[in-house]
Amino acid sequence: MTETGTRRRPTEGLGVDAMLAEIRRRELKALPDGADGPLAAIPTGELVAAVLDEQKVVYGVDDRRDLFEVTDPAVQRDADAVVALLRESHVRENGDGTCTIVAQRFADAEGLCAGERFGDQPVAAFCSGVLVAPDVVATAGHCLDDTTVGSTRFVFGFRMATATSAPGTVPSRDVYRGAALLGRALTGDGADWALVRLDRAVTDHAVAPVRRAGRIADHQAVHVIGHPSGLPAKFAPGATVRDNGPADFFVADLDTYGGNSGSPVYNATSHEVEGLLVRGETDFVDTGGCRVSLVCPTSGCRGEDVTRAPVFAALLSGLGGAQPLLTRGSRGPEVTAWQSLLNRVQDPDVAVDGIFGQATQRATRQFQRASGLTADGVVGPDTRAAMAQLLGLPKAPSSGELPDGFVRALTAVLAPVLPLLSAAAQEPVDAEALRALGRQLGGVVATLLRVLATQHSSPAP
Question: Where does the signal peptide begin and end (predicted)?
Fold first, then answer.
């Protein structure tokens, strides 16, 4: 009894970290109440109730939000690249341009206690991913392998429209099939990632910018967007890097659950993908009749592991051959060159800014229709070839002949020159001579690059 005559609770003064550790120990080892340890005499349900009370008072731990609640346009752009991974059996084609998502009510699927957040929402996804190239998704390595990639469906736009409007169907154009596993790593205490080529290029969603080198700063603010427990997409801000020491991953205090595996973790300042969520704490604990979630408080628990983006980003530079696919969201000198060429052959002009936005996509589709191509807004080999034929430009060397890096560098250097050459080539005076000059220039450069490639690959004396 205390001095006021009130009975002291068994959990009073124990500390939330100690209680959490005991709960997780029991959950992981399937230990019954009273098995062993200093807190063994306290029932699990009582420990859970005490932790939840303490978290509500001190931490305010669960920052997850539905995307319809998010007003920041930068975060919405981040979310546009996020994709849900579903089993083939959970996506049914309706034959009318839509697909039905086969889902369960969250509370029923997990046996949740009353009042658990998002309990009435549907769950369908088993992992999350992010679009890192026009036809490539990055996700966690433990989410799929060679035997399951073909039966996995990648669904964009699985999100709540309002608090009560659940996504029962999605447009068929937002559903993709895994076509090939391009690379994968899975180690228990290190890198965990996979790159999947989709059955076709994604044209209605932006490619996420990905860190290619270096590492995130200590204590940098980050946020995660994905499908916790298979739910419609959630945005979880308010996290920071806690441990930046490991070579292949870093640790952050993210509010994540199973289903978040493969979710992109964004730098909250630059909105660049810093990595993929791959490992974390126990999601739910059994209170003796139903389950509750225990989100890791800011000051305690181990945190969540995030595979660093540069670990897998090196493979991205080689995707798409010597000249990469360009689609909405692409950036860089290749986009600048393409915009310049578009402006030579049609109106209205697009801004030559190196950003493949809506105007560039619209102009690309216009050019493709005029050229008798599929108007998907993606700049690939056929679209480039049509442009080269129209302008009389030198044919680009194939990726099998030259290293990818040399061709990229050449594209950047010649981007301002090629449109001028093509414009001059259409003048009535000496047009044929100028066309010949253009072809000769292409041959000279190609020969030079072959020499450089040979020297680059030769062993040092």
Answer: none
